[in-house]
Design brief:
single-stranded DNA binding; two-stranded antiparallel ribbon; 9 strands; DNA-binding; five-stranded mixed barrel
């Protein structure tokens, strides 16, 4: 029987500074938007398409992203596609998608680095692939549940197209 594959690899630039928040249990979560360009030759000349995707990094990886990344940073992201569904204020069903980062490589100088420092910085976190969809409390080791079960504190977004977490 064939196994499903949920694997994302993308290279792009941050469209704004990353946002660091914490779950009620104190786990850091850093989210940022990434723009990825696709260039190809169309019938009437060169074409450039831009795809935007939200990336979420957790725990130590989240703290490193918040500390070193900024608008315009070029990154390579490896992770898995996740979806969240909810009802908006009018009762309509909404869905959003984001990449849950497993590995992020900084392809441009991190915030605060010397201007000539262009070394690639690899920030990986050890993730048990069998448990990729669950999170544990760092102190007790107790499972926290899936991403959809963990609300984030301090979310000021109110638009209907923003998930309620």
């Amino acid at each position: 029987m064939a196994r499903d594959i949920n694997y994302f690899f993308g290279i792009g630039n941050l469209t704004r500074d990353p946002e660091l928040r914490y779950t009620p249990q104190g786990t850091p979560v850093c989210r940022f938007r990434m723009a990825m360009n696709r260039r190809y030759q169309g019938k009437s000349g060169p074409v450039e398409e831009v795809t935007y995707i939200t990336v979420a990094a957790w725990s130590k990886l989240a703290e490193l992203c918040a500390r070193y990344l900024h608008k315009g940073s070029r990154v390579a992201v490896v992770g898995a596609l996740r979806s969240s569904s909810w009802e908006d204020r009018n009762g309509g069903k909404r869905t959003s998608y984001e990449i849950r980062a497993e590995n992020i490589q900084f392809l441009s100088a991190p915030r605060g680095a010397a201007s000539g420092d262009q070394d690639i910085i690899d920030f990986s976190q050890d993730i048990d692939v069998e448990r990729f969809g669950t999170f544990s409390d760092e102190e007790s080791g107790e499972p926290l549940g899936d991403l959809e079960d963990i609300p984030l504190e301090g979310n000021e977004e109110t638009a209907d197209d923003i998930p309620p977490f």
